[in-house]
Structure prediction request, 272 residues.
Amino acid sequence: MCSNGRITREEDGMAHNDNQVAMTRGVSPTMARCELTHLGRRTVDVARAERQHAAYEACLVSLGCRLERLPADPDLPDCVFIEDTAVVVAEAAVITHPGAPSRQRETAAVAGALARFRTLFRIEAPGALDGGDVLQVDRVLYVGTSGRTNAAGIAQLAGLLRPFGYAVVPVAMSGCLHLKTAVTAVTDGTLLVNRSWVDTAAFAGFQLVDVDPAEPWGANALRVGDALVYPAAFPRTRERLEALGLDVRTVAVDELAKAEGAVTCCSLIFTA
Prediction:
C-alpha cells in the first residue's frame, strides 16, 4: 500500500518519468542475521519483509520512478539496505566502504549497476562511510559521525566531490544508527528531525519539524519528486508533515525496521 488517502499518480493517469531511477535490492533470505547496533534482535518474518519491500517498490513506481532491481544475496543479510553502498550525485557516484565489515561485499553488485549511469569513485580503507549517514540538500552533503562512518571517510568524500562543487559538512550525532535515522529533508528548506539524536547546529537556516515525542524513530522520510514516502507506523508525525501541505504516501516497513532500516535505506533515487 502507498496511500495518502487521496488519488495516486497511477489513478490520475500521470506518466512515469523514465529519467527518475529507483535502484533497489531484494530482501536476503538470511536477513535475520543482519547487523544490529541500537536494537535488540527479534524474529524476522522474511516473507513479510519481502511483501513490504515489494509494496515499497510499487510505491516508488507509482510516484514515477523506473525500477532497477538487483537480486538479493543469501550471503549478505543486509543487502536490501542498498542506500548504504553508494552516494549518488548528478555528476558521479561514490561507492562507499561500509563501516560494518559484514556489509563491505555489498558494494560490488551496486557498483556494477551504477557504472551504467555514473562515473564511479570509491571510499578506501581506512576510511569508512555508510550512505545512510549522508544527507544531501542541494550542493551540500551533511555527513553524520556515526559508528559506521569515520573522519577519514568523510574527508575522502569531501575530496572526491569538491571538484564538482559540493560542500561536505560533518554532523555530530549519537544514539541511533545513521544520520538519516535522526534527520531527513522533506523540502529543500525543511528538515524532519529527532533533536535528541543529532546536533542541529549544522542546520542553521532550515525550518525544523520535530517528530512526535511518542515516535522517536519517525524522522526518516524519503523524498520522491513532490511526494514523501513515509512509514505507516508514525501517524502522529505524519500529521505534522501533512499540516505543512506535504503529499505523504505511507508504506508499511515495520518488518524491515527490525533490521534497523527504514524508507531511505531501501533505495538509491537518482536521475538517469
User: Anything to note?
Assistant: The chain has one domain: 20-271. Residues 46-62 form the longest helix (17 residues). Confidence is low (pLDDT under 50) at residues 6-15.
